[in-house]
Amino acid sequence: MSSIKQKIRSWLTLPEVREIEDLDDPNTSELHRRIIRSKPFLRNIYLDNYRVLEKAMAGLGRSVCVELGSGGGFIKDILPNVITSDVLVLQNLNVCFSGEAIPFKEESVDIFFMIDVFHHIKQPRLVLNEMQRCLRPGGKILMIEPANTPWGRFIFQNFHHEQFNPDAGWCIEGDGPMSDANGAQPWIIFSRDRERFMQEYPAFSINSFRCHTPLRYLLSGGVSMRQLLPNFTYPLICLIEIILSPLNPYLGMFCTIELVKSRA
Ligand SMILES: C[S@@+](CC[C@H](N)C(=O)[O-])C[C@H]1O[C@@H](n2cnc3c(N)ncnc32)[C@H](O)[C@@H]1O
Predict the structure, then answer these.
(1) Average pLDDT in the chain
(2) Would you state the pLDDT for residue 256?
């Protein structure tokens, strides 16, 4: 049985991904960049995610938006004014720094944006302190992260290589920017320990914590697996997700979290 499982897994794994030896090697992020661009489902998911930021930027006028952990994403193709960054030295990024030491002045940033980054942050208090310092009053942190719903937990704990431990503390052990993670960490800080977060960070309010998209990422195969459905079915999957949306607190695989820094 396990050999059948292994064969299916190996068939599903993209041939170029089989060669990866070190997730933390910048070449792995460069490979992800090529994969994200070449898989239509996955590319559409990124476009949908970038629209979340585009919406938040609308009406701000000239704004300073910084993407942390841009990795192999392609946000600049869609929103050229966004400042891209990562702790890894990668091609086509504006700046290289860790979120734990952000090289921007006090109250100079309008929005910090992250896709699948916060759950890789080893010392989240350091990053939250830095973002609090750099954000203008009324500024936002927007992040799209794994969701700790029953369905999300089942998928991440059984079919994903990263740790997903809802019982853990706030910090993550290890120092691999890609390899060390806890997918449940955003839920731990902003939902399970919400009261503690509010006490430690009274300047922030949690404007929204919304679970969504139970199917599309799974069917896209992500950056490691083959896409499971033909390209033309993407709108149909989105429609099915809309129909299922009342069940998002149980079925969402991702959550969008928005924090706002108070104006006072
Ligand atoms: C799972 S990848 C996501 C990349 C990209 N946002 C995307 O969605 O394709 C996580 C990214 O966060 C970056 N990262 C991890 N720790 C970081 C830190 N302390 N500061 C900045 N970036 C970090 C990693 O190098 C990696 O590029």
Answers:
(1) 95
(2) 98
SS3 category, 134: helix
What's the CA-to-centroid distance between 4 and ligand 1, angstroms? 33
pTM, two decimal places: 0.95
Q: Which domains does the chain have, with CATH numbers?
A: 20-261 (3.40.50.150)
Cα 222 from Cα 231, distance rounded (Å): 14
Six-digit token string for 52: 């979340």
Q: Which residues touch 224 (CB under 8 Å, ≥6 apart)?
A: 13, 14, 17
**Ligand 1 pocket, residue 98 CB under 6 Å:** yes
Residue 92: φ, ψ to 5°? 65, 20
Residues contacting residue 142 through CB under 8 Å, at least 6 positions apart: 52, 53, 56, 111, 112, 113, 114, 256, 257, 258
Non-local (6+) Cβ contacts of 245 within 8 A are 212
Q: Please state the atom number of ligand 1 nearest to the C-alpha of residue 100.
A: 19
Of all residues in the chain, the percent with pLDDT exceeding 90 is 88
CA of 202 to the centre of ligand 1 (A): 26
The pLDDT tens digits for 119-154 are: 999 999 999 999 999 999 999 999 999 999 999 999
Query: What is the predicted pLDDT for the residue at 1?
Result: 53
- Ligand 1 within 6 A of CB of 191: no
Shortest-distance atom of ligand 1 to CA 32: 9
The ligand 1 atom at the shortest distance from the C-alpha of residue 46 is 8
pLDDT of 163 reads 95
Q: What pLDDT does 59 receive? A: 77
Structure-block tokens of residue 9: 């897994």
Atom of ligand 1 nearest to the CA of 127: 19
Distance of CA 112 to the CA centre of its chain: 12
CA of 5 to the centre of ligand 1 (A): 30
